[in-house]
Structures are given as C-alpha cells and as structure tokens.
Design a protein that fits this description.
single chain; alpha/beta; four-stranded antiparallel β-sheet; 10 strands; 22% strand; globular
Length: 287
C-alpha cells in the first residue's frame, strides 16, 4: 500500500469514527417543542391515499413534516414511503394510472388544486433521487440550465458558485466547471444534484434514499450537508439505513404496508417506540 493509500485509509477511518455507531440517539427536543413543531409544520398530508390502478400503495396517511427539521421516513421495501414522498413533489403525475386522494398542503397551497401548476410545486419543493442523475452537460450548465430556462435574470455565475458552495462541492470543482458532470465521482454527482435543486431556491428538499448508491465517505459528506441545510430548508429523507436515520433526523416516521404506523421524535422511535411493529423493525426483526 502506498503512503497516499495509507493516508486515505486513515482519513476515512477517522472520518467514520466521528459518527455515532449507536442507533439510539439522545433527544434534544422537549415535548413542548414537538407540539410546536407539529402545529407549525407547513408541509402536511391528511387522509392521503395513493393508488396504482386497483392497488393502494398509501392508505389514509395523516402526517406533518416540521419546518427546518429533518424527518426520516423508514420502513420495509414496498411500504409506500417513496410513493408518499413523491406525492409532495407531484412526481406521481408521471406514472400512468397513479391516483392521489386526500389533502396535501404546503403552507396555504393545496398541492393538487386544479389551478396549481405542478411546475410551481416543484420549484418550491425540490427533489433529490436515489441515483445521481446529472445532465450530460458541463458542471456549470447542470446548475445554470434550469434557472435560465425559468427566466432567471441575475448573475448566473454567482448563482452557480453559491449553489455549489451550499452543496459543499465548490472547492472540489471550481477549477473545472466546464468539464462534463459525468466525470465526477458518485458522491460528487449526488452533491451536484443537490446543488442543482438549491439553485432553484426551493423551500423544502425531499431526498429519496440519496446515499444508497454511495460509499461511506460520500455518505458522510451528504449527511453533514443535510445537517447544515436544515437551517434554511425543511428536509424529508426516505432511507433504509437505520443508522443514518438515527444520525441525521429530528423526527422519524415508520411506514408498513402503506400505513403510517408511528411518527415521533427519532430518539423515541429508536429507544421507546409505542408500537411493537416499530420496535420489531428498528431492531432488525423484519424488513
């Protein structure tokens, strides 16, 4: 092993050792804070039913995502968590036969009102997907393209720089902005996709398993970024990684078979859940 490889190995080990290994986080949210968080939540769903033809993927879910907090949505594969997440971004509109019922609100906006433009919804509620999906363009154009297409008239170079800095990517790519984004590593591509979302100045960021295809070091970068971004954005993350949910989220929602089984502070979900089904899942007995 070369000295460079050895240094990299040590740095990666040190980096991961900084992160808590336990899935049992301590709560820093009081009961009063929790009540206020839920009462003041601006992203909400009531009686949400999502069907694909005759099959119900989400079954009468009531949920509120506290503002400027990270909420993790966990549950076994096929439980409806990604389907629910996509509904708040109107991404299910693209799925033939998908039907969304119930109330999905952001502030005073009914996300499914017939007079609401889905593009406006997606401008305010950004989405980051499981697999990094950079455009086959330069790094610069990946950030600049959507704002320019939507009539942005400010300093586009400044917007690109600001977005990349917010996504903790600027220092790594500032000298190659006109290289292809496809030449970036997987973790860099995912941060580029986050920067691309931030360039549209959303107020909410939805993240559908954003680290599932990434190595531990890249995952650490994304998690640290989420913790920084929640100061300005409401973040909802779908994840299969229990350790990740414990590390980064303030609240956790557990779904199973299309139902919301339990929603509470993350510390409660992992240390003292009310439902046996929740305890069985977070302890690894199923899923």
């Amino acid at each position: 092993m070369t000295p460079v490889d050895e240094a990299k190995k040590i740095s990666e080990k040190e980096l991961m050792n900084k992160r808590p290994k336990s899935t049992k986080p301590e709560s820093n949210i009081s009961s009063g804070d929790k009540e206020n968080d839920l009462r003041n939540a601006e992203l909400k769903g009531e009686g949400v039913v999502i069907s694909y033809g005759a099959d119900q993927a989400v079954k009468g879910v009531d949920i509120a995502f506290p503002s400027n907090k990270i909420t993790a949505v966990i549950g076994p594969s096929g439980c409806g968590k990604s389907t629910l997440l996509r509904a708040f971004n109107r991404m299910n509109d693209f799925i033939l036969g998908a039907k969304v019922e119930g109330s999905l609100m952001y502030k005073d906006m009914d996300l499914y009102d017939k007079n609401i433009d889905p593009v406006e919804v997606r401008l305010r509620i950004g989405m980051v997907f499981q697999k990094p999906n950079p455009f086959p363009k330069t790094i610069f154009k990946n950030i600049a393209w959507a704002p320019q297409m939507n009539g942005y008239t400010g300093d586009i170079a400044e917007l690109v720089e600001t977005s990349l800095k917010r996504a903790a990517l600027w220092n790594e790519v500032s000298d190659r902005l006109h290289d292809s984004a496809l030449g970036l590593s997987g973790g860099q591509q995912q941060r580029l996709c986050i920067a691309r979302s931030l360039a549209m100045k959303p107020e909410v960021l939805l993240m559908d398993e954003p680290c599932s295809a990434l190595d531990p070091v890249s995952t650490s970068h994304i998690e640290d970024l989420m913790l920084e971004l929640k100061e300005q954005y409401t973040i909802v993350i779908v994840t299969h990684n229990m350790q990740q949910a414990a590390r980064v989220s303030d609240y956790t929602a557990f779904m199973d078979s299309g139902n919301l089984v339990e929603f509470d502070e993350t510390s409660t979900i992992f240390t003292n859940p009310k439902e046996q089904r929740t305890e069985d899942y977070v302890s690894g007995r199923f899923g």
